[in-house]
Each structure stands twice: as structure tokens, then as C-alpha cells.
Amino acid sequence: MSRARCPRCARPLTHCLCPLIPHLSSHTRVLILQHPDETAHALNTARLAALGLANAELRVGEHFPELESELAGREAWLLFPGEQALTVEALAAGGSGAPAERLLIVPDGTWRKARRILHCNPWLASLPRLSLGEGLVSRYRLRKAPGPGALSTVEAIVHCLNTLEGAGRFDALLLSFEALIDAQIAAMGEATYRRNHLGETPAD
Fold first, then answer.
1. Is residue 9 part of a domain?
2. Potential cystine with 109: which of 30, 35, 55, 59 (Cβ 3.0-4.6 Å)?
3. Residue 62: CB partners within 8 Å, gap ≥ 6?
4. Domain assignment of residue 67, yes or no
């Protein structure tokens, strides 16, 4: 029998994260495009970001044909690495203020699934791209990062918004994320976590 879940954060009622999820306003609009395979994942950080930001939206799917016309005329940036990608730090330093219609589009999923979203929406792949700066360290202790500086979706969004709109303004979004990680570690047991994720060998 499955455990009862919170209809808002989708966590078991005994581990509801809603009290830790803020309601933050941002000048930048955030649109998260989540691959369907991520919706049932226990560590769904995109959902936490969407719940915690007043000016954010989460859409699930691979094909988003409606978005091309919806976003016509808006300044939209795709948060995804590429040869011509501009770092978010460079974008923040390059203007006197954020435009009225700046939009940050964030694919959510593994790198393969995120690329699938771009492949299914060619207009999306043609948008100017943003990348994260170097030297970032993820707090995502339960997944091995695919490369240096790789962050979870909520961490990447917090970094971008803090850089664009003021350092530390969106750190509260990470409270529920940290609690989510701590709960997963507690569920598996400290010894199992250390053995499987830190590579530690139990003492004799």
C-alpha cells in the first residue's frame, strides 16, 4: 500500500517539504521544461524550484509546439551549454538592468533527456544560450555529477537568479532541497550512504 503524499510537493505526508518552500518573487521569469521520466523521481528538484518561485512555471513533455508562438518577441535564454553560450555572469555584467520580458528556459532531465527536448523542439535549440560559470560545486550528494560544475536543476536556477538579481536573494529555495537530500540519506542509512556515495569502507 503506497504512502499518502502531499498533493503540493508530492512527498510522503510524513516528509512534506511545504513548510520549507518559500514564495519568492523574481524579475526573471523561469520556465522549466521537464522530461516526463523525471516527474516520478524521488529527487525532483525542478518541482521545488517551480513551487518556490512566484514567477516560474513547470511544463512536462518532450514536444512543446505551443511555446514558439507564446514566446515570440520576448528575450528568452536557454540554460544549456554550447560553443556560443554566454555565462550568466557575463549576462549580468553586460547590461544596466533586466529587460521587461527576460525569460530563462531550463530543460530538466539527464543530459541525454535534455538533449532530446532540444531535438524535439528545433526552435528551442536556436535560442541564445546561457551557461554556468566555472568552479561551482553541487550540494547534490546523492547523484554523481556528470562533470565539474554540474548542478541540480534547483541549484542552477538559484545560481542564475542570484547572479542576475542579487547575491543570496534566492538561497531560501535550497532549504527544501537540503531537507530532501537529508531525508533520502536518512532513509537509506548513514552507513549505506557512506559506502555507496562516498566510497568509504566500513571499519572491521
1. no
2. 35
3. 35, 36, 116, 117, 120
4. yes
Does residue 139 lie in a domain region? no
Q: What is the pLDDT along the chain (204 residues), one digit of tens a residue?
A: 567 889 999 888 988 999 999 999 999 999 999 999 998 877 789 999 999 999 999 999 999 999 989 888 888 999 999 888 999 999 999 865 555 668 999 999 988 999 999 999 998 988 999 999 877 877 675 555 445 457 889 999 999 999 999 999 999 999 999 998 888 777 665 555 454 444 445 444
Range of the domain at 179: 28-133+149-197
The three cell numbers of residue 106 are 531550463
Q: Quick check: is 21 in a domain?
A: no
